[in-house]
Amino acid sequence: MTPQNADGVERELVSIVGEANVLRPVPETYVIDDRRPAFVVFPETSEEVAALLRLAHARELAVVPMGSGRRLSFGNLPERVDILLSTRRMNRILEYEPADLTASVEAGCALEAFNRAALPHRQWLPFDPPDADRATLGGIAAADDFGPLRHGYGRPRDSVIGLEVVQADGTRIRAGGRVVKNVTGYDLNKLFVGSFGTLGVLVRVNFKLRPSPEAEATILFFDSGWERLEAGARQILQSELLPAALVFANEEAMSVLLPDHPRKALLVRFLETAPAVVYQVERAKALAHSLAVELVELKDEASRSIWEKLGRLHRLLPTDLRLRLSVLPARTVEALWASERALGEKLARLHILAQPGTGIVHIGGGLAIGEEHILSSCAQAILHLRMMWAAHRGRVIVEHAPPEIKRYVDVWGDVGTSLPLMRALKHAFDPKRILSPGRFVAGL
Amino acid sequence: MTSWIAELKEIVGSEDIITDPERLLVYECDGLSIHKHPPAAVVFPESAEEVVGIVKVLCRHRIPFLARGAGTGLSGGAVAVQDGVILELARMNRILEIDYENRLAVVEPGVINLMLTRAVADAGYFYAPDPSSQMACTLGGNVAENAGGPHCLKYGLTVHHIAGLEVVLPNGEMVTLGGHGTDAVGYDLLGLFIGSEGTFGIATKITVRLTRQPQAVKTLLADFLSVEDASRAVSAIIAAGILPSAMEMMDRATIEAVEASVYAAGLPTDAAAVVLIELDGLAASVEYDAARVFELCRANGARCVLVARDEVERARLWAGRKGAFGALGRIRPDLMVQDAVIPRSKLPEVLPEVYRIAARYGLRMANVFHAGDGNLHPNICFDGRNPDEVQRVKEACREIMELCVRVGGTLTGEHGVGLDKIAYMPLVFTDDDLEAMARVRAVFDPEGLCNPGKVLPVRRCRAF
Ligand SMILES: Cc1cc2nc3c(=O)[nH]c(=O)nc-3n(C[C@H](O)[C@H](O)[C@H](O)COP(=O)(O)OP(=O)(O)OC[C@H]3O[C@@H](n4cnc5c(N)ncnc54)[C@H](O)[C@@H]3O)c2cc1C
């Protein structure tokens, strides 16, 4: 965009959302990788979003939608970013029917705000993505962003029952509805959830809720090696127990989560009726005893708070690089080892969180930015990990990395045989490539 | 002989193709007898490679085609409306792999739902989605319809239990959707394909997730003197934050039909409605919740609440429930099994209205349904040979659909749109919504050869 064009565009943006809701020049906090958007806009209604997209479509301006911005670094280097579209002002709960266990919210509604409103009805949305304290529900849906609770409750994808989406050309469509079971037509919810703002802008999301658990406790097993912790996890998974989350954490992670216990740990979270929590805690204690591992029990608030901290781990420890591996659950510990070996020497304070129930492994650490050889050897290590794990259906996604690494590595990795379908879908929904161009798989 | 038939015979052998009009009549409809149309031919592939070969031949000749599993579908989905060729997948029925450690199984699409659960039961697992037709329907059909079932209330629909698919696209190319146990990257094509009613391609291999059997199960039967009370009890249980694994309602007409059939389960024939409630999970929770469910039922007017004493009693109650459609089917020559969803708190308001609609059209109605999710099945027993009655059935169905949509519900919760509900689609979706769906379909099937005439109103598909 030339400065003259930019002035013209600014006038139009102001006419849509008002002077106070167009930001220019754009401060550092909104820079995506190495691109600074020309504008940040803050629409308040879906009509305004539609008008903004009509404008962008007509002028072929690149738009990147954002919620709280906590996941803006997730994606390949953007080709272009002209307008950053924040849903921050679209934060209302539009409908909430406790008796139906369903709700409809604007995309910018915060997860925490919603769960506070649902608390008196003893209901909740069981999501715990990283930075859950800042997450918006639209952002969670757009990124299908999950945390350890995925083990017990599935991904956000499984809770989204309806959407309102503004398409690239500004037309609005609805997918799904407000009921918990629905096969009326194609399920376009699935298309948009997890599409990272590359097919349309989510403006409204309908969810099904869960009754909130009556009681909670977390059991931690500690040991100096992974073997017995792995055995513990396996036995829990093969037992009658129903943990809501199950996570291995390495010493570095534990040094922050529970500073008195900087050892390898298995964290097991129980969310159930009160008698079932008591029962499971007893069973877990007996298991710890039989495995001869050390055990700590955290109740109620202490339990909640360690998980909340775990969701902020990357803010509490240096995290210039963060990878997510997805492997077959039985290989979780193997993947944990492999990633530790691959990156141990390259990252400072390497921290690992791994979920043996779902096969998700998160690994993060600090980088000596500016040291070209470290960056390129990191990139090599990522590609090598990816290649190794591809043979076992494993994936390695780069959730966060400096642009220097993204220049070497596609953050998503290989898509497989369905890439032509994805390209065709992108073309069908965003033919001018104005929505987050370049950021998604294969640079879509 | 037409050249494409000769070409197909070369692929499957001349035994494995039917073109004789008389024998084709078997394939003129699915479980919903109201829509009938015979296919041009039926072929029986035995492998994915054969499916690829068949699809390529048909594509080249521009002949429409569709997959068929067991033909138990209830929306006319497996009917070859445009004189197409049916690929009957019943012979692709092998369980290829069971991986308990990762809780996965890989199956061919013709595997019958219940057979999978039986195959893993001894190891302590089950396949969660359990349509009432599970003794007959195939997993391929379940994927295509995103089938539900009584236990979906707690365990979710088919889409929540499929980890990956191998699909032959309508142009004969083969693709893999989903990660088959790990997370795929990119758009969720797996989720999009599930429930696409056979219009996006043919699933030739399915990776499913297995679920561990719960520690404890408790089955209760509450009987009520009015349908409203029964509905209120259901709503109260949901509102109390209890998540039963199933909550199924049967009204008097259904109870009478079941008790007069081989599925007789000892249900009280003088009740206006019974609700079959199952709780499962940890024994400690099940006991605790059962006591609360008992109280909530009594507080909402249950005359009595029975608890199944053992596995035999439990199985009998479920046989009664799962045999209900079959039992109803014997009352009159035809049965219209309807399917709609409403917000569950609306049950007490909507159910009586549904009966009033049936009464207004002089139709015999029986309701047996997944009450916990608000998924209604108002069933109409009728005689398809009587055109006037058929007309009344259609009009009543439309009114029921309009009613459900009006209270915030939708047209179908598990049986799909198929042929049956195309005309109602504009009740829930705008032209723009439908156009977006048509765009997705065109991505999978640009030539429009794969199960044409289903799901979307035709004029809109034509636009592409
Ligand atoms: C008594 C009775 C009870 C029922 N109860 C339930 C219930 O509780 N819940 C529920 O959800 N449904 C229920 N159904 C409906 C029906 O059983 C389901 O829709 C089932 O999933 C259909 O499976 P099928 O193998 O019979 O498929 P078919 O009827 O043969 O086909 C259905 C659709 O799937 C497509 N298809 C089949 N195989 C494939 C494949 N491999 N790839 C792509 N497309 C394919 C067909 O083209 C067609 O469009 C019931 C039906 C009956 C008769």
Task: Map the helices and strands.
The complex is a heterodimer of chains A (444) and B (464).
Chain A: H1 3-17, E1 22-23, E2 39-41, H2 46-59, E3 63-66, E4 83-86, E5 93-97, E6 102-106, H3 111-118, E7 123-124, H4 137-143, H5 150-153, E8 160-167, E9 172-176, H6 188-192, E10 200-208, E11 210-211, E12 215-223, H7 227-237, E13 245-249, H8 251-257, E14 264-272, H9 274-291, E15 294-299, H10 300-310, H11 313-316, E16 321-326, H12 332-343, E17 348-355, E18 360-366, H13 372-390, E19 395-400, H14 403-406, H15 419-429
Parallel strand pairs in A: 2-4, 3-4
Antiparallel strand pairs in A: 1-2, 5-6, 6-10, 7-11, 8-9, 8-10, 12-14, 12-15, 13-14, 13-17, 16-18, 16-19, 17-18
Chain B: H1 3-12, E1 17-18, H2 21-24, E2 41-43, H3 48-60, E3 65-68, E4 85-88, E5 95-99, E6 104-107, H4 113-121, E7 125-126, H5 139-145, H6 152-155, E8 162-168, E9 174-177, H7 189-193, E10 202-209, E11 211-212, E12 216-224, H8 227-239, E13 246-251, H9 252-259, E14 273-281, H10 283-299, E15 302-307, H11 311-322, H12 324-329, E16 334-337, E17 340-341, H13 347-360, E18 364-370, E19 375-376, E20 378-382, H14 387-406, H15 425-428, H16 431-444, H17 458-462
Parallel strand pairs in B: 2-4, 3-4
Antiparallel strand pairs in B: 1-2, 5-6, 6-10, 7-11, 8-9, 8-10, 12-14, 12-15, 13-14, 13-18, 16-20, 17-19, 18-20
Bound molecules: flavin-adenine dinucleotide (FAD).
